[in-house]
Each structure stands twice: as structure tokens, then as C-alpha cells.
Amino acid sequence: MASDCLATFPRRRNATVSTIDWTRLAPPEARRLRELGFDEGVEVQVLHRATLGGGPIACRIGRMTVALRRAVAASIHVAPIAG
Question: Cys-Cys with 38: which of 12, 33, 67, 76 at CB 3.0–4.6 Å?
Fold first, then answer.
């Protein structure tokens, strides 16, 4: 199954987190992701992207909507859910 990073994944499509490159994240960023529930196997969906290229990404994880910096989203690798 192909893996994409969350920063470039298409909007409104369901995906599963396949891996997170924890080494690319500063300790506070990694802690925040863990507190929000980001981990392998979790379902996620990109909802919105800022109109400017470097802006944040809004995504849904569970019933929460969270905003992630693009650099953080680039460290999250996802696989599309068929359907």
C-alpha cells in the first residue's frame, strides 16, 4: 500500500497513519502529537489547507479537528483507506 505524507494528502479522503518520523519533530511537537492521539493505525482526514503555501493544515482525528504546521504534517505518513 502506498504511503503519502499528511501535508500533501488529498483533502476529504480518509487515511490511516502508517508511520510518524519522530526524529524530524522537536520534543514539544512530538509530545503534542501524542497528546492529540496521533499514532500508527489512527484514522485521519485532511479538511482544509491555508491558501498560502506554507500555512497550517486542518485535519480530523477521531472527533477532533486540529491544526498542524506543514512541517509537522510532513513527518506524518499516511495510507489511503479504500472505499
Answer: 33
